[in-house]
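question for whoever is on the cluster today: can someone run the full assembly for these? three chains, 863 residues total. i dont have access anymore since they changed the login thing
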Amino acid sequence: MGVFPWVAWYAFRRHTAYPLGSAAEAVTNTAFGFLRAYVLIALWQARPALGGYDAADAVTFTFLTQALIGPVQIFGGMELTDRIRSGAVAIDLYRPAGLQSWWLADDLGRAAGALLLRGTLPMLAGALAFPLRLPGPAGLAAFTLSFLLATLVGFALRYLVALGTFWLHDERGLQAISLVLSLFLSGMILPLVVFPGALGAAARALPWAALIQVPAEVFLGRREGPRLVSALAFQAGWAVVLLAAGALLTRRARRRLVIQGG
Amino acid sequence: MADRPFDAVRVYALLAWTWIRAAAQYPVSLALLTLGTAVVTSLDAAAIVVLFGHAPRIAGFTAPEVLFLYGTSSLSFAVSDLLVGTTELLGRHIREGSLDAMLVRPVSPLIQIATEDFSVRRLGKLVPAGLVLGYALPRLDTAWTAGRVVLVPVLVLAGVAIFGGIWVLAGAVQFVLIDGAGATKSLTYGGAYLTQYPLTMFARDLVRGVTFVVPLAFVNWMPALYVLDRPDPLGLPGAARFASPAVAVLTCGAAALAWRAGLRRYRSTGS
Amino acid sequence: MIEVVDVVKTFTVRRRAGRVRRVRTEAAAVEGVSFTVGRGEFVGLLGPNGAGKSTTIKMLTGILTPTSGTVRVCGLDPAHRRTALARRTGVVFGQRTTLWWDLPLRDSLALVRRLYRVEAAAHRARLAELTALLELGPFLDTPVRQLSLGQRMRGDLAAALLHAPELLVLDEPTIGLDVVSKATVRGFLERLNAERGTTILLTTHDLGDIERLCPRVMIIDRGRLAYDGGLERLRAEAGGDRVLVVELARPGPPVRVPGVTVDRVEGPRQWLRLPRSANAAQVVAALAGGHEVRDIALREPGIEEVVARLYRGEREYRPGAPAQRPAAAE
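^ ran it for u. tokens below:
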């Protein structure tokens, strides 16, 4: 077994070792699912079929969003940031494995743990309280793929922000900007289908849409056939571009660390 | 506990000022973070604007009315967060042992936790709240009697106290459930989100819960019914609309008792 | 200064029993400990991890309330007069700082002055004195989070002493410190006790602290006071076997001397274990009679070994009636 599956497995174990904290987060994710669902139900009562969704779509979208908060870590942050700030990243850079691959493996393990501990409760509670629109086996397979790509894009974005710590005196500003973008442009606050004209079009083209909006559409069965392919290609495209940018920045960071001596 | 209430205020101000000065050493960071906080907070307002872009009335309420609710709720929440919001970190202080360090100082640990990392950055939340309230107030279609005018600042202050009590209650829960911080956010941040919208949107049982169990309805909804001249969907007596200050006192009292009980428990169990 | 009578502290522990079921059991961290510490004493509290040291310290400082028994510190009941007591005692935790992480040390100390309401003039004089003694000058304006462990510990000591407490309680003050910092801290504590008459109680794993600083040692083991007295008496009473190191003229099989066991043979050298009951002179005489001896040395057991034996429970030491000391009256 190579080192990366081991890193991922270790991260999974680490993030599931204290399930109580995650369960507590899941409770809040679920509570917000209910609050946001009622808001959207009220909107769809005033405007049925808004954006091509019906109320069941909107409610499903909401609970799915809440279930994805943990796995795609929409609120940002990565342990790597602390390691860069403390200088411990020098150890990571001396490993024979690449920094980005190492942390990607770690993040996939974390995401799997979060899906299990934080994704289940919101979906379960939502399904018990409302008629949710759940996918069939084929839809579920497509969603799994889309979810995996969303995790990749989520990692790539957060990795870029974390690397910013190498150059910035205080990285919290960058994190705040990134938080605003990822909350609003991912569909987390409202589904992107209710965004007006140009704003909606722009939001749907940017990488944050790959985090929530696109996987949710796949889940709802609104992307099938060629539209499913284009959805997955959209996610994969952004994953490749952002991961490549991360690789480039990693090289820069390594050079900077070597020159400055850590 | 501090010797006198005045003393508690003095020590609170002292600690808060020290933290502010520490943060002010990096003014650029501070400005950016304040701006970031303001923008993140205003996303909820942006969501309301987007919603009303599709319908003139939602759940029977107009955009200015909902923005009035948003403004009062988030103004109250922002101030309460500034004052006592860091009590949600109690679990971490217990885990890391820093609560013990607080207990050997001659100052209430509640004051020490509440002022921890006190930062004007959190004032960033006040900006969108104030702007939205300023936008919504003149656009409300209501007859501004003296009573209604006076009730607006009263409801904001009572809201601060109710949210403050809820923060401290949520913190006190962590004396028992150390890992509970994630769940108590349902009450604090969840409460802030809920009160941005008219309660007519939510299920009847939920509304009963936030009226009689966790008194979130008294943050702004009950007095807003009077300000906006609306009927109460729960059909409570008219006096309920003016009950917010009394409810605030009760909430703060319950929070103080819970905190004391939690601290006593911590000191007898050490965990 | 400190009076502890029959103090018990039990915790409720939830243990897994099967998949879901949990059983609650009472676990005693401290079981009936009594001692007194007089004004101006310097006492070391020893014990293995989990023996009840920290719990005892927490009850003395009012962080924890005892399950039963009475505690008086500076004439106050810590559990009920925590704040009043805090103004008269200084507490330092070696494992974590009581300073404010993001503030420069100077600001942290200024804040401590306000919290403890120390007069400005007294504060200035005391800060100058502590700055000189603890050599704080070079890092007074550095944020606490950037300080080395040794610097931080010195800063913590200063913060704990700004209000001139009568009693200083230290939990592992030298843990993780380098040799130089350790020496600075020890030297400072020694002077504080000798010149100011501050009563000091410290817990430690480092027996060097005890040997250097504490005329009196208390050992807590499994929640009970296993020893209370001087270091020498501890050595004598608890103290394991002495070791006689003999160098013979040539290598050979282990020597045979009645009442003595040979622990180790290394070429011409042999290590002989002498029980307390054995007479060293007789053993040496017996040896010299049968062998050609080049050199001979008698080793007393080290304090580490003495304590290790105590922890292992090889020798139960039970003090009789607690030594009658003058109560730390106010």
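summary bc i know u wont read the tokens: The two ends of chain A are 32 Å apart (CA to CA). Chain A has one domain: 3-260.
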